[in-house]
Write a structure and sequence with these properties.
Keywords: Signal. By secondary structure, this protein is of the alpha+beta class. It has a domain at about 1-55. The chain is built from three helices and four strands. The mean pLDDT is about 80.
Length: about 90
């Protein structure tokens, strides 16, 4: 989530990782210019209100695979760097 008013500067830095980045969710309102800028990079952009309303939509789920990850737990890094565990 991007909370910063420096949205465009952050977005330009994220352009290098857009192959992995699918969506941006902001606690602040998203302007049409910001949405357009994100979409030009292939990234969906939502305000928190828009994002929370997505849960009420019907969606078609992809068939599950045995190799699918269902949970990522994050450690605080008390014995080293913080990390995610699949």
């Amino acid at each position: 989530m991007i909370l910063s008013p420096l949205f465009f500067e952050i977005l330009s830095c994220l352009s290098k990782c857009c192959a992995y980045l699918k969506a941006i969710v902001s606690f602040r309102k998203i302007s049409s210019t910001q949405k357009k800028e994100a979409e030009e990079l292939g990234v969906s952009c939502f305000s928190w209100e828009e994002f929370s309303q997505l849960g009420s939509l019907d969606c078609e789920l992809h068939p599950k695979q045995k190799s699918d990850i269902c949970t990522i737990m994050y450690t605080s890094g008390t014995t080293g760097d913080p990390k995610g565990v699949f």
